[in-house]
Amino acid sequence: MSTFAIGDIHGCFRTLQKLLERLAFDPTQDRILLVGDLVNRGPSSLEVLRWAKQLGTRINLVLGNHDLRLLGYAAGITLPKKDSPLKSVLNAPDCNHLINWLRHQPLVYQEGTFVLVHAGLLPQWTVHEALRFSQEIQDVLQGPLASQLLECLTWKSLPPWKSIPPELQRIVASTKILTQIRTMTRNGGMNFHYVGPLTQLPNSLIPWFSFPGRRKATSTILFGHWAALGLFQAPGILSLDTNCARGGELTAIRLEDGQLFHQKCQD
Fold this sequence. Notes:
Radius of gyration: 18 Å
Largest sheet: 5 strands, mixed
Strand order of the largest sheet: 3-2-1-12-13
Number of helices: 8
CATH superfamily: Metallo-dependent phosphatases
CATH topology: Purple Acid Phosphatase, chain A, domain 2
Order of helices and strands: EHEHEHHHEEHHHEEEEEEEE
Number of domains: 1
């Protein structure tokens, strides 16, 4: 039995199928872990969601910012653009079942010594704290405050805290960190705007995983989201988003031995 972690799929179902062939993935024996952003950009978000859902207990995943955007569309918070690839999901006869399944997925998942998150963790967070925050967010997404949380996530920048219900303030901040963070300011502030490569990173910013004093653990954090970072390995971290939806590759790692697998975009 093997366990494979796969980077951001973004609706690239044909590429995913080719990668699974390369992995010799056996759904009766092997398991799949996904670092989020299953949907959007690529042409086949509906097929990706159906594939993931039917795997049942053979798959574990965390939600990414594009997955949350889909939940917002489904809740009527905002409307997708006319050419949005997410319309195939919203118009599907099994849309409600897929959305309900997606709402029940976590934002942080631990598999032995590996921790999955879409974007990153604050330096001062322990894995235990991140898992607790993830559970809080998951509970909100399944409850009456879900629409308010999803609406907050559509804002380009966070308004004054007084504009957010007190019971949602930490939830909103935690959700944005787990699904959107790439860099931080040198005084410890969060930055959600820089999307470029490390080689062009302004001196005023630091990758979240390089911040001095980051609370280290025995876990290795697997994440995606930062496409311009690409495949990036350092002690305790592995970035798996290799920009498949924009003509790059879809990347997987076999957790048992660390072997990497790559599939050029086919979508």
